[in-house]
Amino acid sequence: MLIKVLGSAAGGGFPQWNCNCANCSGLRSGTLAAKARTQSSIIVSDGGEAWVLCNASPDIGQQIAHTPELNKKGALRGTNIGGIILTDSQIAHVTGLLSLREGCPHQVWCTPEVHADLSSGFPIFTMLSHWNGGLQHRPVTPLEPFVVDACPDLAFTAIPILSNAPPYSPYRDRPLPGHNVALFIENRLSGRSLLYAPGLGEPDAVIMPWLRRADCLLIDGTVWQDDELLAAGVGKNTGRAMGHLALSESQGLIALLASLPATRKILIHINNTNPILDEHSPQRRFLTQQGIEVSEDGMVIDLQELTS
Predict the structure, then answer these.
(1) 2-301 — its CATH code?
(2) CB within 8 A of 306, min separation 6: which ones?
(3) Are 156 and 185 in contact (CB under 8 A)?
(4) Which residue, 54, 92, 104, 106, has fewest beta-carbon neighbours within 10 Å?
(5) How far apart are alpha carbons 176 and 117 in whole angstroms?
(6) Is the dihedral of CA 189, 191, 196, 202 positive or negative?
(7) Pair 121, 170: CB distance under 8 Å
(8) CA Rg, the chain, in Å?
(9) How confident is the model over 22-79, as pLDDT tens digits?
(10) Where are the domains of the chain?
(11) 242 CB contacts (<8 Å, ≥6 apart)?
């Protein structure tokens, strides 16, 4: 199984267009040892030809332009994106569908809760219904494996996780189990597996067995501390209120990752305020000491190269 990170930042990207926090201003001025990042999405493949897109960020056009694997050679118009899976209905994970309209119809796998949000409060399915067949919903039932035809050797399982519904949803602060899922992706031939969870608010009894089972974790690294936005002076939301488990809390993500046997542990969906973006920061050094990687745009993960 091949995984490529198209975007590794949280909503807004890094630097965020309207932000002058220490990280964003430092990157712009060249005084911060960091790399620019687009908003979170990945592609996965069972053979490197056809790919499944997991989340469609607002930066999808820029991401595709830097991803030659998605260019369908020999076709006047076409793409190697063979299917799309959504882990939630957050604006930063679905707005890119609008930019993919010229390639419709697209098969889009998501839960009924996500489909409902995207047919009402943010009605992308409705808006694109007249574009050459539009977005064709493929219902996802949590905990039931499914296969995308383009990559038949991969089995996908949606795992309900504790997080939050988007601000526009009537279920904000009272999400249903299908509003947020992690994806457990397994190569049915090799048995190698990835758990992709860009929004993890709290580990519970449902997700823990899957976290322990995965060979590779590509997991929520949004904020270092829960009150990070407040401390930076750029917002009032806590990580927990947004549906993200902070890295450094006593019961935070770093402590959780230390208890898990995965061969590779990689952070994604990193907010522009997070000090781990600074490659020379003590926080980044600590992650390295713990064997935790920080994803960046264009990062390739080949699960066949993993050693147990």
Answers:
(1) 3.60.15.10
(2) 192, 215, 216, 263, 264
(3) yes
(4) 104
(5) 12
(6) positive
(7) yes
(8) 18
(9) 999 999 999 999 999 999 999 999 999 999 999 999 999 999 999 999 999 989 999 9
(10) 2-301
(11) 164, 222
